[in-house]
Amino acid sequence: KDGQLLSSVVRTLATQSPFNDRPMCRICHEGSSQEDLLSPCECTGTLGTIHRSCLEHWLSSSNTSYCELCHFRFAVERKPRPLVEWLRNPGPQHEKRTLFGDMVCFLFITPLATISGWLCLRGAVDHLHFSSRLEAVGLIALTVALFTIYLFWTLVSFRYHCRLYNEWRRTNQRVILLIPKSANIPSNQQSLLGLQSLKRNSKETIV
């Protein structure tokens, strides 16, 4: 759906823009003043030129490797982003809150569970010295239950965030476009294309 929507928007802008005669990027609608234009797919006309950075950003955000208009498959190299970047920006706002809350809980519960377990074990040892086996068994059972709940919560939280990280890592890869040099459009050729288009339009107007 996103590809179809972008296709319709691009076609509409291409037909309505007053600068159709000049080669421009079909995504940002800028010329080649800041970055050279490419023609990496089978699209023609105003839809056939694009900036490399714009195309790489689009392929990364859409998680695709083909043109949404002509369905030409690009040769790309995908590199995963580092874990630190995910920790800084894990995704939607609710995922940020969940990650931050679980990290705070882990830092708070871990020493609390460790101290509580140690105190229970010390109490169980003391009760064994005074022949209070029932109290000692109760404290040992409490220690086991405490660490079982702690390990279960840690495992569930860890698996949940690992799943979110793997999904983020799969859909937020850094895309490097691998294209031949023939796909580049030199600036002099761009100006020539613009002049040819202007001459063709002027002839049609005269006729």
TrEMBL record:
Write down the superkingdom of origin. Answer: Eukaryota
Give the matching InterPro entries.
Znf_RING (IPR001841), Znf_RING-CH (IPR011016), Znf_RING/FYVE/PHD (IPR013083)
User: In which organism is this protein found?
Assistant: Charadrius vociferus
* Function according to Swiss-Prot or TrEMBL: E3 ubiquitin-protein ligase which may be involved in endosomal trafficking. E3 ubiquitin ligases accept ubiquitin from an E2 ubiquitin-conjugating enzyme in the form of a thioester and then directly transfer the ubiquitin to targeted substrates.
Pathway info: Protein modification; protein ubiquitination
GO cellular component term of the entry, any: early endosome membrane
Q: Where in the cell is it found?
A: Cytoplasmic vesicle membrane; Early endosome membrane
Give the reactions, separated by semicolons, that this protein catalyses: S-ubiquitinyl-[E2 ubiquitin-conjugating enzyme]-L-cysteine + [acceptor protein]-L-lysine = [E2 ubiquitin-conjugating enzyme]-L-cysteine + N(6)-ubiquitinyl-[acceptor protein]-L-lysine
**PANTHER family attached to this UniProt entry:** E3 UBIQUITIN-PROTEIN LIGASE MARCH 2/3 FAMILY MEMBER (PTHR46065), E3 UBIQUITIN-PROTEIN LIGASE MARCHF3 (PTHR46065:SF2)
Q: How does it sit in the membrane?
A: Multi-pass membrane protein
Question: In the record, what terms sit under GO molecular function?
Answer: ubiquitin protein ligase activity; zinc ion binding
User: Which keywords appear in this protein's UniProt record, sorted alphabetically?
Assistant: Cytoplasmic vesicle, Endocytosis, Endosome, Membrane, Metal-binding, Transferase, Transmembrane, Transmembrane helix, Ubl conjugation pathway, Zinc, Zinc-finger
Domain RING-CH-type residues, every copy: 17-77
Name of the protein in its database record: E3 ubiquitin-protein ligase MARCHF3
